[in-house]
Write a structure and sequence with these properties.
The protein has 445 residues and is α/β, with parallel strands linked by helices. It is built from 11 helices and 11 strands. It folds into 2 domains: 294 residues; 123 residues, no CATH class. 35% of the residues lie in helices and 13% in strands.
């Protein structure tokens, strides 16, 4: 669509225009007229805010998230009379990319061999996940996989091993781009699967020395009270893999060229704001853009990327994190939130993203998020000397110090402000604490 989708009043008769850019699953631009108008307007604006949503592709809901954040940000500036640059003429861009139309898997916790919810919400989600996963399978294995898992709430270990082999081969065959770790073998993934199912391990299909109870887990909790696997948790893990990869592709192939153009062809201050997998979209965009000058700021809200992504040396492996260069591509310190109240990112992400434990120095037991934990769940790792941790600042009363040597500031959203957590869940990212963090990055002082 061409033209701004909405205008937000800023006071004094001025407005901020919001444009929406839609991308397909490979990063192909589907809004060329809107992008052309954005580029034509760059000479007349001072600040560009580029937003990317996370686990949500329903247009109306993505738009609501942008409206909520922008509206709250503007109201808070007026509430506290926050200073803006003298040439503050903002233009807003919201990315619309196809992630999924339901909640992030495990948003409400794993379903352990349970019947679908009475309203059919879970059944619809499982059907969508099945479609997403099988869309990446070759014709030679698709029928076999569907017969193994379709409509089932429990399968035996031999069937689970074969299903895992098929999905890993299609969606998790390459090293993880965030931390460089090798993918798990099918047997290793069965240990993860058992943990996702409820903390225990099911009967091994082969050598018990290769597959046993997850260390630190509760061996008494087994799927459906017996030795089987819930295929819905395989679909959930596979959907996470697919969406994580898609976010990277949308960022590199789609949003990256726009970021490169903005930073090469204009002098505007570019502010990047990403939530969940939307953080990966914007990290990939900036990393791939090879900009001629840095973006002004980056705010990552409950980022669903590996916590070692900024490290020069991931857990002593000698590998750099996939986004280790990004903090140097941003003028102001990169702010990234994390919260103990984000259940998907503190309880499940590290299980779904666990790689192979073979040949990995210092890899912790399954269930330990040290290597595979999410940035939005536990904060960054491997950035000692260039990072700082800070409790979420109280709006109107506390300030973030952006003048030090830290290139990454991890904002703890688990702290209470006015009697409730600053960030109370994975999707609770449009609130006074996050608006205040954004103001810290935008204000001229």
């Amino acid at each position: 669509m061409s033209g701004p989708f909405q205008q937000f009043p800023l006071g004094g008769g001025t407005t901020a225009d919001l444009y929406l850019l839609r991308y397909d699953q490979d990063g192909g631009l589907r809004s060329p007229l809107a992008e052309r108008e954005i580029k034509d307007r760059l000479a007349g604006v001072g600040d560009v805010f580029l937003f990317s949503h996370g686990w949500n592709n329903i247009f109306a809901q993505a738009l609501d998230r942008y409206r909520d954040f922008v509206g709250g940000f503007i109201a808070q500036r007026q509430q506290f009379a926050i200073a803006v640059p003298p040439d503050y003429r903002p233009l807003l861009i919201g990315v619309i990319w196809p992630s999924t139309s339901f909640l992030m898997p495990w948003e409400a916790g794993p379903r352990i061999a349970a019947d679908p919810e009475p309203d059919g919400a879970e059944a619809r989600q499982v059907e969508e996940m099945l479609g997403l996963v099988t869309g990446s399978l070759g014709a030679e294995v698709d029928p076999e996989f569907v017969e193994l898992v379709d409509g089932r709430s429990v399968i035996d270990s031999d069937a689970a091993l074969r299903a895992a082999e098929i999905v890993l081969g299609a969606l998790r065959a390459e090293p993880d781009p965030d931390d460089g770790s090798s993918p798990p073998t099918a047997k290793e993934f069965l240990t993860v699967w058992a943990a996702l199912d409820g903390g225990g391990a099911a009967a091994a299909p082969a050598d018990p020395d290769d597959f046993g109870v997850a260390r630190g887990a509760s061996p008494g909790l087994l799927v459906a009270g017996g030795g089987g696997f819930d295929p819905r948790n395989l679909l959930r893990a596979a959907t996470v893999w697919k969406m994580k990869a898609r976010a990277g592709g949308v960022g590199s192939n789609g949003v990256g060229p726009l970021v490169a153009h903005i930073l090469r062809e204009s002098g505007v201050r570019l502010h990047l704001v990403g939530h969940s997998f939307g953080a990966k979209v914007l990290l990939s965009a900036l990393a791939s853009a090879a900009p001629s000058r840095p973006a002004r700021s980056m705010l990552l809200l409950q980022a669903a990327v590996n916590r070692w992504c900024f490290a020069a040396d991931v857990a002593g492996t000698g590998r750099p994190g996939g986004y280790h260069s990004v903090p140097d591509l941003v003028d102001r310190p990169l702010l990234t939130t994390f919260s103990a109240f984000d259940d998907p990112l503190t309880k499940v992400f590290h299980l779904a993203m666990r790689g192979s434990q073979l040949g990995e120095p210092g890899v912790a037991a399954i269930g330990d998020p040290e290597l595979y934990g999410a940035l939005g769940g536990f904060g960054p790792a491997g950035v000692e000397g260039i990072s700082a941790r800070r409790l979420a600042a109280v709006p109107g009363r506390e300030r973030y110090d952006l003048g030090g040597a830290s290139r990454v500031i991890a904002v703890d959203g688990g702290v209470e402000i006015d009697g409730k957590p600053a960030i109370a869940g994975h999707g609770e990212v449009s609130n006074p604490a996050t608006w205040w963090a954004m103001h810290a990055l935008v204000r001229p002082d």
